């Protein structure tokens, strides 16, 4: 449900978002990498802090990256932001 909600909000193919989650975390909500990437979309602490600032998320804490809705919302926002930087070049966005 969150995939469809935020994919629609940021005009991203929901299948792309689902594929990224499958690749990054295998749909494990509490996934944590050796590079400190967290949650479904594997957002790092530094990137999460930056995204939260850009999105004006109040009282942000890194633990929020384990919340499925917050992680997908921030991840979709980030993909949309990269699209603004790289256009629709999906290879650069996903790199």
Describe this structure as you would to a colleague.
By secondary structure, this protein is mainly alpha-helical. It has a single domain (2-94), classed as Lysozyme (Orthogonal Bundle), CATH 1.10.530.10. 58% of the residues lie in helices and 4% in strands. It is built from 5 helices and 2 strands, in the order ααββααα. It has helices at 2-9, 14-25, 45-55, 68-86, 90-94; strands spanning 37-38, 43-44. It has a two-stranded antiparallel sheet. A hairpin with a 4-residue loop joins strand 1 and strand 2 (43-44). Helix 1 (2-9) packs parallel to helix 4. The chain starts with a helix and ends with a helix. The model has no long low-confidence stretch (mean pLDDT 96).
What's the end-to-end separation, in Å?
26 Å
Query: What's the CATH topology name?
Result: Lysozyme
Any low-confidence stretches, pLDDT <50, length ≥5? none
Radius of gyration: 12 Å
**Spatial shape:** globular
Name some characteristics of this structure.
mainly alpha, Lysozyme, 4% strand, 5 helices, 95 residues, two-stranded antiparallel ribbon
């Amino acid at each position: 449900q969150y995939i469809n909600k935020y994919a629609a909000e940021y005009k991203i193919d929901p299948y792309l978002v689902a594929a990224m989650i499958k690749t990054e975390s295998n749909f494990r909500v509490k996934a944590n990498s050796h590079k400190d990437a967290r949650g479904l979309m594997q957002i790092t602490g530094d990137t999460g802090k930056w995204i939260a600032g850009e999105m004006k998320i109040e009282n942000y804490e890194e633990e929020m990256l384990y919340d499925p809705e917050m992680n997908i919302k921030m991840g979709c926002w980030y993909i949309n932001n990269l699209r603004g930087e790289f256009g629709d070049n999906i290879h650069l966005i996903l790199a």
